[in-house]
Amino acid sequence: MTLPSPASSKGAPAVLSLSGVAVRREGNRVLEDISWRVGPDERWVVLGPNGSGKTTLLGVAGARLWPTAGTVEILGARLGAVDVRTLRPRISFVSGAVTRQLRADITTLEVVVSGRFGALETWWHTYAPEDWERAQRLLAEGGVGQIAERPFGVVSEGERQQVLLARALMGRPELLLLDEPFAGLDLGARERLLTRLNSLVVDPAGPPLVLVTHHCEEIPPGTTHAGLLRGGRLLAAGPLADVMTSELVSEAFELAVTVGCEDGRWWSRAV
Predict the structure, then answer these.
(1) Which of 170, 155, 142, 141 is nearest to 108 (CA)?
(2) Residue 27: other Cβ atoms inside 10 A
(3) CA 158, 159, 160, 165 torsion: positive or negative?
(4) Where are the domains positioned within the chain?
(5) What separation in angstroms does the CA of 117 have from each of 72, 164, 188, 217?
């Protein structure tokens, strides 16, 4: 069963539009025939098992990875007809790959403020006092303002994810992409990050976002749309309640599960 991906709401231009997209590596199919639209006021979650192509899909959506076939339009620009150096700064990532690129001894405040220009070091650019104030405020909004002067390499995994999210928001992105931000978090850290993400998804002034995860329990309340990937193909995409059914989630993960939602929080369990 496949649901069509919805058109952008209220006739507004899509923030992200993929048509017939495929990605192949060394003859292996990673993504195949992906057609997908994200509207400017939509907040998406993409779920699927390991190896289904979720991270690759985010790479294409963020202009970090070139598709083998198909067309990709991001923020009104078509890949192949735009200088990606001007496009990429308009898109922010929360990803473990960013962690591996940052020096361990840089302070968390410096990590955040460097997101103003998408840099890895603060000495590459000049920052105004209001930039430092905004960075401190973003840390405080994530509940980690007290660690501003700590080295990034010694903070906990939960604190690190809040810092990376603050860094992503520092540049005022027009599209926010989050690649498994809950990986490795304990219960408390997961709930604190969910609370922070909930505040973003329900904020009308917030950027459209796409969150990749493995678990229904990690869908922030307020999420509007969902996509399910299996074997590199988009099994279903559309309004959250239409996609997060026991039938479709079971098909995506090739395991019979029951899916439910209580007080805005989703859950799943094997039948």
Answers:
(1) 155
(2) 5
(3) positive
(4) 1-75+208-271
(5) 24, 14, 31, 33
- d(Cα 28, Cα 24) in Å, to the nearest integer? 5
Residue 243 contacts residue 227 (beta carbons within 8 Å):
yes
Residue written as tokens 């239409």? 242
Per-residue tokens: 250: 């079971």
Query: What is the topology classification, in CATH, of domain 1-75+208-271?
Result: Rossmann fold (3.40.50)
Residue pLDDT, tens place only, 9-46: 556 789 999 999 999 988 889 999 999 999 999 999 99
Nearest-angstrom CA–CA distance, 103 and 218: 29
Give one DSSP letter per residue of 97-111, joined into a string: HHHHHS-TTSBHHHH
E strands within 42-192?
A: 43-47, 69-74, 77-78, 91-94, 175-179
The helix/strand/coil state of 60 is helix
The predicted-structure confidence for 75-109, as pLDDT tens digits, reads as follows 999 998 888 889 999 999 998 888 888 889 999 99
Position 224, amino acid = T
Strands (E), 15-172: 16-25, 28-38, 43-47, 69-74, 77-78, 91-94
Give residue-wise pLDDT tens across range 166-210. Answer: 999 999 999 999 999 999 899 999 999 999 999 999 999 999 999
Q: How far apart (Å, rounded) are the C-alpha atoms in residues 115 and 110? A: 9
Alpha-carbon span 217 to 187, nearest angstrom:
11
Residue 5 has pLDDT above 70, yes or no: no
